[in-house]
User: What shape does this take?
Amino acid sequence: MGKVKITETILRDAHQSLIATRMSTDEMLPIVEKLDNVGYNALEAWGGATFDASLRFLNEDPWERLRKIKDKAKKTPLQMLLRGQNLLGYKHYADDVVDYFVQKAVANGINIIRIFDALNDTRNIERAMKATKKEGGHAQACFSYTNSPYHSLEVFVKDAVRMVEMGADSICIKDMAALLLPYEAYNLVKALKENVKVPIELHTHYTSGCGSMTYLKAIEAGVDIVDCAISPFALGTSQPATEPLVATLQGTEYDTGLDLTELSDIAAYFRPIREKYIGAGKLDPKMLGVDANALIYQVPGGMLSNLVSQLKQANAMDKYEEVLKEVPRVRADMGYPPLVTPSSQIVGSQAVLNTLMGERYKVVTKETKGIVKGEYGATPAPISDEIKEKILKGEEQITCRPADLIEPELEKIRSEIKEYIEQEEDVLTYALFPKQAVDFFKSRQAAKYKIDGSNVDYKNATHPV
Ligand code: CO
Assistant: This one.
């Protein structure tokens, strides 16, 4: 037992969860030095959806954001979230792209890379972990917490032990759906601490209202680091708030050593920004309440609202209860994937189809077939022969690591966008989000040209935020 460390998520997950990742670099920079002085374990500042959102909605270069933050945060490690072989995109990339992306992330200022895979298939995080270590970064391996008849303490411990064998410098429990209850957290952390030597970090969301209690029990079980958000962007679908936890632990053996007055200055900075987003209708009060459905149905809140909108579109809201019963059955058929992007959408849509068609798997989505085929990697539990037969209709399952089937692609990508390259990192931006990247490159060229001539601020003129 000892002092607890806190990773602050305000620059990444907090605004990703509450305001759809819309916080701009200009809104972050004035407070970064203060954040750097607090003594956090790390500042989570990059990755996840921030890369996509910077390009798509803010007309910002994500690499430049990272460099600007790093310039002001010289003491505290910067952390990013990376979806293993998917990097920050939505498909598997070739190993040469993964290596180069990690190399550039570290070179531009990232110290800790938190790496996860939607299916918890450790083969999908191995390459990114190796690359991180090769670049001198801290490779944090992460598993998604979920409940199912297959998942147990033993399964999670086995995953964690495997990750440490693969070279993980620390382990993170990622409870994206806020399913981890306080006493379960206690048992899970205890079991992990007994079986692995590296630090254990816990990441949860406040969605189900349990987050702070879950942290407290995890701390009593010996968790080393917890993820919190400064109060104006905490709670609801975001993380538990930083300040109450710091106050709670003060004077105990777990004391974080952080100064509440400094945290209060930071909160004061973000309060008007929060008000601005509430005023603009971007921070929905619904995001801030307790979603008890997450506790009852064991599915992430966002997934339920997706189901409702699909059923409304089909004029079939009367089937809601039936679909809710079908979701766990489809999930079982698919080998109990954690319900996180993209598996939550895949399972949800298939459950709707199975219910509306009146016959299970009469219509199968491309993505459902992909999961069964092994295109996303191995599912936690094996898929039954009956389901394989029904969905693959004789096609072979892929049993290797999906990226083993992808040829190196970096040079081809580079040749496609030669004319736009102003920095090496542009190659990676294009590899991940080709369309958004080209739009961004074009507007960057245009802005440069016009600013030289007439000093027009095109960034703000064309993309109001
Ligand atoms: Co999160």
In short: The CA atoms of residues 21 and 363 lie 34 Å apart. Residues 13, 176, 203, 205 surround cobalt (II) ion (CB under 6 Å). Residues 434-454 form the longest helix (21 residues). DSSP finds 21 helices and eight strands in the chain.
